[in-house]
Structure prediction request, 242 residues.
Amino acid sequence: MTTILVVTLAGLMVGLSKGGLGGPIPVSLTLPLLGIVMPISEAIGMTIPLLIFADLFALRMYWRKWDMGYVKLLLLPSVVGIIMGAYILSSLPEEMLRRVLGVFCLLVVVYKIGGSALTGISYTPRLWHGYAAGWVCGFGSALANVGGPPFTAYMLLQKLDPTPFIGTATLFFAIVNFLKLPAYLAADVIDLNKIFHIAWVLPVIPLGVWLGRKLIQNMNPKTFEWIMLGLLVWASLSLIFG
Prediction:
């Protein structure tokens, strides 16, 4: 019963994030949640089909509302980051992997608390900034599903309007998640039999997407973010010191 509840909550977190509520925080929370009931390496392999399934709904909502220039700029270095992240993932022992994931998740909290300052920075774009951001996004996404904060930090500096901002994130991470699939298979992170055992949670994801859209209209997003941040801090510390 504990496993069912945790997996259901993880699916709901993925849906809420893809529905636009809480940005990268709910997705960052999925791995620490699943780590309660299974090894982290197994949890990482479990989350990828959930993310890809959720991406299908997000793409439908933001179809052709992206800026293809930024996607092309970030994508190639992100592939390098994905390969490196998947390699490190396959070589780390479980205990070390839990601590690394905990540290990455705490960095998400630090970013979220201080990220609003980025919009006020006087910034001159450089091409290599996009290459560096793309690499970090791919590496963080492959290693711990935390590619969202570096992407968001870079895109905030570009000062895009909200719709192309979200549309670009939607397409970019849909491609990144799809590319992670062969990388995880090559690194022997994915167990297809175990993935089939959690297929029942897929209907929860579109429910979470719909709920995320509704809550944006009826709930203070800041309140939700602080709740998620509190849970993420607790989960991160549990991974590091548990």
